[in-house]
Amino acid sequence: LMAAGGGAGVVTVWDLEGRRLSTVIRDAHDAPLTSLHFMPGEPRLMSAGRDNSIRQWLFDNADGGARLLRFRAGHSAPPGCLSYYGDGSRLLSAGHDRALRLFSVIQDQQSRELSQKHTAKRAKRLKVREEDLKLPRVTALAACQVRERDWCNVITAHQGDPCAYTWLLKNYTLGEHVLRPPDTKTAKGGDGTAVSCVAISSCGNFGVVGTAGGRIDRYNMQSGLHRGTYARPTPEDTTLAVSSGSGNGGGGREEVIPNANGS
After folding, report:
1. Are 87 and 72 in contact (CB under 8 A)?
2. Can you list the residues of the chain whose pLDDT is less than 70?
């Protein structure tokens, strides 16, 4: 057999003895291939690509085709956010390839990408790049190990997005809750500005989301429900209405006391 790889991430395998095309491995890599190598005396092929992955293919199908046996992969674009998780033996990483990954610093085979709801299958069906179906790149992330087995325990902020997203780390997948402000001052809710920072309480019960516009919202991590807003007070909020009168509850008049800045 002879294998050839090109710029489309496709591996073509030729049967030299029969002088014919043996099989084609489509979508072997998400970027141009850089190296191919057959294991001597074995029906196994190693491939490497610019998508920062190395894959091993086994030719054991009845039709002479190959199947993916094992692989190792990292971000296909530079990482932008890094955070140690739990006791420090795992690392959460988000890159410009729009992927969120969990790396083990002890056993690499435990490293994997968190799922964003079958993007690979949908991309193949729609004939688009998988990256185009993923959430925008992560700009901030927060995690708490305390409630890892109970509910979502990771929050991420994404470029230009006014909502924050939850992740269920025990299942390595995107969570069902999208943290969106409840009011509708804009079409997307909240103050319309992108989420810029996130945090999770040490108990794992609450997530806090801050926006570029200065708004801070608190959410319940189990239900995803909004539980409060921390906002800069307006002049209307800082005026104080008091009732002055005889002290017996009758005949009084209402006055507005100006705040410190004279409003």
Report:
1. no
2. 183-191, 232-263
